[in-house]
Specification:
- InterPro entries: CutC-like, CutC-like_dom_sf.
- Belongs to the CutC family.
- Homotetramer.
- It is found in: Cytoplasm; Nucleus.
- This is Copper homeostasis protein cutC homolog.
- By secondary structure, this protein is an alpha/beta fold.
- It has a domain at about 10-105: Copper homeostasis (CutC) domain (TIM Barrel, Alpha-Beta Barrel), CATH 3.20.20.380.
- Helices cover about 35% and strands about 10% of the residues.
- It is built from seven helices and six strands, in the order αβαβαβαβααββα.
- Strands 1-2-3-4 form a four-stranded parallel beta sheet, covered by helices on one side. It has a two-stranded antiparallel ribbon with strand order 5-6.
- α2 packs parallel to α3.
- The relative contact order is 0.09.
């Protein structure tokens, strides 16, 4: 439903994240079934590309699973997501992803943010288009100037207070570290415009 509505509202390509759960990137057979079903449905409803990632238990790219999922994704372009930041050897992992046919990799340079991982991002971007996570309007210029990548990835979100007037303080709908029920994360148009302006000025 979200994909259908987004496709009606925007003109930019929409890539759909295929991630059956939070946590690690080592998937069970049932989770793989879900991923394949999600890919088919995303394609059916107009996805312009897909985003996923899968690792082996020893921190390498799960080439067997990725190959199977890439086959379901065809002919759409595919990005490997930030599971990349959890690999044992990022340079070997990148070579594997290129050989498999991934067009992009989302990464913070295997560090806590793109700024901290900038030196690795620069090395990776020489081999493949590498947009990355952890971008804000405060660090985008420095990151773009410090690498050869021409794309970037960010959430550009802010918190909005809920419109609920009645609030039950005794009930939490998620884990203790999840977002409060009466605060909503939304895409921030002002942040998106600021980030676009910074990027256009540099690229």
């Amino acid at each position: 439903g979200l994909l259908q509505v987004v496709k009606q509202c925007v003109r930019v390509p929409v890539f759909v994240m295929i991630r059956p759960r939070g946590g690690d990137f080592l998937y069970s057979d049932r989770e793989v079934e879900v991923m394949k079903a999600d890919i088919r449905l995303a394609k059916l409803h107009g996805a312009d590309g897909l985003v996923f990632g899968a690792l082996t238990e020893d921190g390498r790219i799960d080439t067997e699973l990725c190959t199977a999922l890439l086959a379901v994704c065809r002919p759409l372009p595919v990005t490997f997501h930030r599971a990349f930041d959890m690999v044992h050897d990022p340079l070997v992992a990148l070579e594997t992803l290129i050989s498999l046919g991934f067009e992009r990799v989302l990464t913070s340079g295997c560090d806590s943010s793109a700024l901290e991982g900038l030196s690795l991002i620069k090395r990776l971007a020489e081999q493949v288009s590498v947009p990355w996570g952890g971008i804000t309007e405060r660090n985008l210029q420095r990151i773009l100037e410090g690498s050869t990548a021409s794309e970037f990835h960010c959430s550009a979100r802010s918190a909005r207070d809920s419109g609920m007037k009645f609030r039950n303080p005794n009930v939490a709908m998620g884990a203790s570290f999840s977002a409060p029920e009466y605060s909503i994360k939304v895409a921030d148009v002002a942040k998106v415009r600021t980030l676009n302006a910074i990027a256009k000025n540099i690229l």
